[in-house]
């Protein structure tokens, strides 16, 4: 919470009932504030900041957080995944308006001609209309022989068919079910359009549909360097280099969202961490110390001195039995990264450990009064039971204080936030319920298309009638 300075409307003029001085001073000083403490420093109250005190975000920092940049270094600590470089032709396909999926003879289950063909759908951005090309025998389907001729002669994947085949082979290599993402973002905001309302994909077309429907992916493609500055010391050629876009396919596995945590690192020191999933999990309260210790140890031994930058946000996963840590992602130290249970002002102004002089049990830094460092087993064998002071006096135990332990913030049972997450995640990027329900089946999709076209036709007719009446 930001507490702004500045007192109430206390004026500086004299009170009307105050006696007038016998000899007025040509430059009278304002009367002192009656609430002012003369012993306190005469400094103005701090005013609320108008912007978050982020350091400049460089393009190099954004690229360092790209999956293709950090994955080779931490490959042995990440879930199994494959990184596929993307071609210019495929990037042009992702950037193009509308959603048109390529035909693939292996995407369907039917053996007869036409049964195994992936349905082609397209949203026309300018008119807002929806069209599909499917079964010519269906009287309700918007089909024409011209469309059929065009579809037979045009291959939307003609310029990147090799990449399409590589994606298909990679899906098979990873067990048949994968989770996609681009350099920085996963299409979590587009799961409404995928079967099962998840990011699990079984065919290349499942992947294309998610990528082309995601605002997060569009941000990666069009606005990756928003609010960044030129990297100091970088040449013009280096700054002008194109982003090496890639498609990351991760082998799907059962991930417990309660064990995903976001870690905030400043000056190569782990400041704090919190849940990524905004729900209350009772069992986490009993695991705080263990989870924090595992993450701190992993950070100290594997990440602190190996990541390119000193400031970053790291997402990790600590699976049962909570003895190891996996890297899920690295995010920029910037306002675009969600601080979740913290606020960015809170993180940016958080106190750092003074100097890393040693580690005690579970990553706690301990320093004695004479500057010596106490390690595990040197402070009386760890925790001291009540009534057992050992040879250490109460004074020594008070001086030997715990200097630093990163805060682990969880959603608590009594927190209002634990029961106020009524707004679905990524709701700003979702569509109405009827659109989602229509996407669950081909017939529903065609029915929605017909209804949508009827609505547009009525709207155009009403506009035409209104225009003709105005002309009369």
Topology:
Layout: H1 59-64, H2 67-70, E1 81-85, H3 88-95, E2 120-123, E3 130-133, H4 145-153, H5 161-173, E4 178-181, H6 204-213, H7 215-222, H8 236-239, E5 246-251, E6 260-266, E7 269-275, H9 288-303, E8 312-317, E9 326-331, H10 344-348, E10 365-366, H11 394-399, E11 402-404, E12 407-409, H12 433-438, H13 442-471
Organism: Friedmanniomyces endolithicus
InterPro entries: CDC123
Protein name: Cell division cycle protein 123
Summarize the structure.
The protein is α+β, with helices and mostly antiparallel strands. 26% of the residues lie in helices and 12% in strands. Strands 9-8-6-7-12 form a five-stranded mixed beta sheet, covered by helices on one side.
Q: Could you tell me how far the N terminus lies from the C terminus, measured between alpha carbons in angstroms?
A: 62 Å
Read across the widest sheet, the strand sequence of neighbours is 9-8-6-7-12
Uncertain runs are: 1-24, 108-134, 357-401
SSE ordering: HHEHEEHHEHHHEEEHEEHEHEEHH
Count of distinct strands: 12
Give the averaged pLDDT, no decimals: 73
Coarse shape: globular
**Which class of secondary structure composition applies to the elements?**
alpha+beta
| Spatial extent as radius of gyration | 31 Å
DSSP helix fraction? 25-40%
Region (Disordered): 1-55, 100-153, 370-400
Organism: Friedmanniomyces endolithicus
Biased composition (Gly residues): 1-14, 372-384
GO cellular component, one term: cytoplasm
